[in-house]
Amino acid sequence: MTLPFLSPVSSREITETDIHPLTELLARGLGYPSGYFLQVFERLTHHKTPAGFPKYGYAMMSGDLIVGAILLIFTTIETEVGTSVRCHVTSWYVLPEYRSYGALFFSKALKWKDVTYLNISARPPTLPFLKVQGFSKYSEGQFLAIPAVNFSSGKERAKVVGAEIVPSAHFETFERDLLLDHARYGCVSLWCMTSQRAYPFVFRPHLFRGFIPGAQLMYCRDVDDFVRYARPIGLFLARRGILVVRVDSNGPIPKLVGRYFAGMGPRYYRGGRHPRLGDLAYTQAAMCALPRRKGPDPL
Fold first, then answer.
1. In terms of CB atoms within 10 Å, which of 95, 155, 218, 255 comes out highest?
2. What was the pLDDT predicted at 108?
3. What percentage of the chain exceeds 90 in pLDDT?
């Protein structure tokens, strides 16, 4: 598809033959090691992309030269009441001399009306651009919890086990598949089992400030479930060296020990269904551990 008024510039779907040049382009443009993007492409290659959607995203072309790219992670999201399609709009970069074409290039990635688009790592310079593209903020900040000391957790007895265990209580099959997928990605996937059901949780380990051992909550059925079972989950994580858990939030979380930071790690969406807090499954952040960039690492 040729972009209007730009005869030498076009866009097309990324193919496997583009992976090597794109890892170099994105590494130079975004400041992460090329090996990180090789891992991203490897994960996307094996990801179950819904039929009819791009496997990797789009490349901007000037003749035969790749001058920009945007990675898209399309996923079928299952719930107990049905399915929908979600797209994580992630790593994107355009060479400086072609940035005037960026808005038209970007808009092609947002053409599906029934898809929920997520942007969970927008840098400050891109925020005006996101607003123009119709994105709205759905998570204002982050709550930093210390779950192991959450003595006010509910009194209901709960047992925490790894994702490889088949729960003896009720669980959803798609949630077990999700836990096992994310365990393969390097996340900590676990079940919190009660006599009634098994609750799934996924955490991505991360060193906050470069030295504080913690993790981001990537998936749960409901943030209230994390609050209810914070202490047994926290003790399970502490035995694996994880002391602090970051949770997407729009304010302080009652009954959870920790502190809310407004403006930290905001999340944005466009179209489709309003995203719920506590679900970053199958995003790039969940599928690949983010390496450090040059400069300070935000908490």
1. 218
2. 80
3. 77
Q: Which residues of 174-184 are buried (b: 16+ CB within 10 A; e: fewer)?
A: ebbebbebbbe
How many Cα atoms are found within 13 Å in the side-chain-facing hemisphere of 254?
2
Q: Do domains 9-114 and 141-263 have the same CATH topology?
A: yes
Q: Are 170 and 287 in contact (CB under 8 A)?
A: no
Cβ neighbours of 108 (radius 10 Å): 16
The pTM is what? 0.91
**Weakest-pLDDT range from 99-103, 122-126, 131-135, 262-266:** 122-126
**CATH numeric code, 141-263:** 3.40.630
Give the fold, CATH level 3, of 9-114.
Answer: Aminopeptidase (3.40.630)
Domain map (residue ranges) of the chain: 9-114, 141-263
Residues 154-201: pLDDT tens digits? 667 899 999 999 999 999 999 999 999 999 999 999 999 999 999 999
For the cut 60, the answer to whether the pLDDT of residue 298 exceeds it is: no
Backbone φ and ψ for 214, nearest 5 degrees, come out as -155, -165
Given a contact cutoff of 8 angstroms between Cβ atoms, the answer to whether 283 and 219 are in contact is no
